[in-house]
Structures
1.
Amino acid sequence: MLVLSRDGAWLIRLERLAQKGGWPFEARAALPAPGRTPPPERALAVLDRALAGKSLDKAVSALRGLYPGVAIVLSFGASEMDHDSVTAAVSCGADEVVGKSWADDRLAAKLAVLRDRSLFSQTRLSADGALKAERRAHRVHVKARGRWKELVLDAGGFALLWRLLEREGVPVSREELGDSLAAAAGREVEAGTVARRLSALKKALAAWPGDIEIARGGLYRIVSAPRRRR
């Protein structure tokens, strides 16, 4: 959760709710500056209406440009939350509006729903920038000769790829991959199924210069091809 506000009490409150939910938390007293690479795991941004200033549209647009996949929430003080203000806030491109005066239970529930929704719309990109997976659409693309080409994967293949891309370069156990495959299939899978499905996934990714490597102890990892020096 990224919270953009100068309201100390509000920041403390949201940090406490984030801790209870087990969410990473970051607070900033100003809008992020363009030109810096944002953290890839950002899922929820809470923007204080007071910090956005008069150009609310521009503030939301700039935030959306830096973090395309996040849910953007505008927070209002009790005196600011009238019908016209809320209508204008939602129409400017924000996903939702919350009130600082809301009870903790109501606030936490709303933020959890928005965060989960944004996580489902995440896009994973390999380190070499040539393999892209879109979680909400369950679509995979490989870049070849400067153009994106879609690869057709079933739900199981996508689940394996997504889990590997989540931890690119880090070994993932066969058991963990089996859990992802079982969740996608809606049933338990046999011990040898993971290895067979990974072999099929590796073939499906043949156009990508990276690879799925097998390590000792039933571990697998996905790695991008090293970039060539110019």
2.
Amino acid sequence: MFRLQNTQSGRPPGLAARVLALLLVAVSIVVALFFGVIIIAIVIGIAFILFVFLYARTWWLRRKLGLNVRPRHQRRPHDDGVTIEGEYTVERSDEDNRGKRP
């Protein structure tokens, strides 16, 4: 039968072992952060390329189908709009005239 044996002597690790473990953990954290930043940069780059591709494709389709409609402003010189002129008078509302009735 297999039996686990305790190989530790019961003493706490020495200063050199603690420093080495701390350095190993610090290096592991730095490497993990580095790879994380690289992966995020790759994902953002792919998203940007996809956005540019979809935007160009949409622009091309709208141009091809003649849907390149833009809103026109009223004051453009080539617009054939009609201007209506008139006068108006502001009358007081009933709420303003309460208490002022003869």
3.
Amino acid sequence: MGVTNLFLLLAEYVSSYQWMLPDESCRDELLCNEYLDCLIGHIKEIEIENYNGYYDADNLDNFLLYYEYEIVYPFPRVILSEILKERWYNWREDSMQSPTKNYKIFSQPIKAHTFCEISERKLLDNVNNYALLNHHACTIRDAIISIAIDARDTVEFRNLRDNAALTQWFADNRLPQRIFNRIPKHGENGLGNWPGASPLMCSKFEAQGLLNTAIGQSHRELFNHDGLYKMFIVFKDENTVENTYHGFHVASDTAEVPLSIKKRLEHKLFQML
């Protein structure tokens, strides 16, 4: 089973490259807390996804330089340590990039950087996924970042700059992909469900689309909002090698969907309007 490798890049206090501009908005206690809250939101959004997280300890220290000299509460280093302690690893402790290779971005040399690390790992591994979580870290707005290695190989990876891009990328590139399985118990298109069983109001193809972006507190049970029917849809993990789920619709006032999930889905819907 494949896995996604997600690399975090933070804003810098001292720019390491011209396209790594420091985020002036972070040099303020209130805005710093907003910056960190936003990052926490990103990570919570993908907490049930199958991924390995990587960060750069040097990049982290660079981001924290300003706050090491200014008293900002709660302390950013403590917050970031809590955020990263479980599923995130400092790639410098097991770096794969080669000091003898030439890495370039926009035809300009780059070394000892997260971009080099992603590129080298992806070059060596054609099975797993690689992407950058660019948290207001650089001025590159392109959806794809391209790195040349020794003028022989070119490696591309996604530049995920906000929550919408992050969640959609997982929906499209999740490893393994979720597969919707229609079962007779719930029927299809609001028809054929067993007596007393909640119906599947939409088609299996529409259910697949809703499954791709469904959220939950664990992968065992996922939820989404079906705007067409103004109902929630519940997906149950079938615990198969193929990663299949079956699903059914429930009323909007149901207690079957946790309140925290309802709030997250309402927030996502609000962002789409």
